[in-house]
TrEMBL record:
Pathway: Amino-acid biosynthesis; L-histidine biosynthesis; L-histidine from 5-phospho-alpha-D-ribose 1-diphosphate: step 8/9. GO terms for cellular component: cytoplasm. Belongs to the PHP hydrolase family. HisK subfamily. This is Histidinol-phosphatase. The gene is hisJ.
Length: 272
């Protein structure tokens, strides 16, 4: 069954205003039988978004409208495609309690969800690791090296896997090599192979799934999926379920990277 488990929506403050129907009709045209809308969840209360426009997460006041809209669309298109109501939830070091409270409230509504790391903490300051090459360059100065950023990213990712966020913690870990987004311009001097293998071991041990994300292929400074195919081969060895995600922020980006993915036949469907 062909499906996309990571799709954004007009509720994304840093995406496009393409209608839900644009995404759904495009998915049907491409032969998808299932789609998960996983909009960026509102950021925790008390967390200050470090991006210039403070637009990393959905406005909390729109959350109920988001759920209602998708509930209506699920019924309208139920004969054409299975639609999952989902969220992409940020793991933010220091805000585990707030995230657990959010998941306890809204987890029962969700059909699907992803747990991702976009923000790194250094001292009392937070950085968005994938915002822009310029912000990444500033991080290099503040962290003193590219390698230190990668270390911090993989350490935070490991925390996201092992942290207790309650019974509604997402079962799928998002784009685990997102820190590679600018690798063509800012290349670390280490492969971080052992870090990644340790993360895969923890994903397997905690019986989690992995977002096999095609978006990186279209990023000019990345040019590979998140994660790259050697990591997918290691995930397969560990019997980690893999779910394709376009990570589309506009309807025309559905299916991005899909044809370049390794062993597309082993991709699975998300579960609650």
């Amino acid at each position: 069954m062909k499906m996309d488990g990571h799709v954004h929506t007009p509720f994304c403050p840093h995406g496009t205003k393409d209608d839900f129907e644009d995404y759904i009709n495009r998915a049907i045209q491409l032969g998808y039988e299932e789609i998960s809308f996983t909009e960026h969840a509102p950021l925790p209360i008390g967390f200050t978004d470090p991006t210039p426009n403070s637009d990393s997460g959905m406005d909390a006041s729109l959350l109920e409208d988001y759920f209602l809209t998708l509930s209506i669309l699920k019924k309208r298109f139920e004969r054409d495609i299975k639609i999952n109501i989902g969220l992409e939830v940020d793991f933010i070091e220091g805000f585990e309690e707030e995230t657990t409270t959010f998941l306890n409230e809204y987890g029962p509504i969700l059909d699907d969800s992803i747990l991702s790391v976009h923000f790194l903490k250094k001292g009392t300051q937070y950085y968005c690791v994938d915002y822009s090459p310029d912000m990444f360059n500033q991080m290099i100065k503040d962290y003193s090296s590219i390698n230190h950023i990668y270390d911090a990213y993989y350490d935070t990712l490991l925390q996201s896997i092992t942290s207790d966020l309650g019974k509604y913690k997402p079962k799928r870990i998002g784009h685990i090599t997102l820190v590679h987004k600018f690798q063509k311009k800012y290349q670390p001097t280490s492969s971080f192979t052992n870090n990644i293998l340790s993360i895969l071991d923890q994903i397997a041990e905690n019986e989690l799934m992995l977002d096999y994300n095609g978006a990186g292929i279209n990023k000019p400074l990345c040019k590979e999926p998140y994660p790259p195919n050697w990591v997918i081969e290691e995930a397969i060895k560990r019997k980690i379920p893999l779910i394709y995600g376009s990570d589309a922020h506009r309807s025309k980006d559905l299916n991005q990277g899909y044809e370049s993915l390794l062993l597309r036949e082993i991709l699975t469907s998300p579960t609650k």
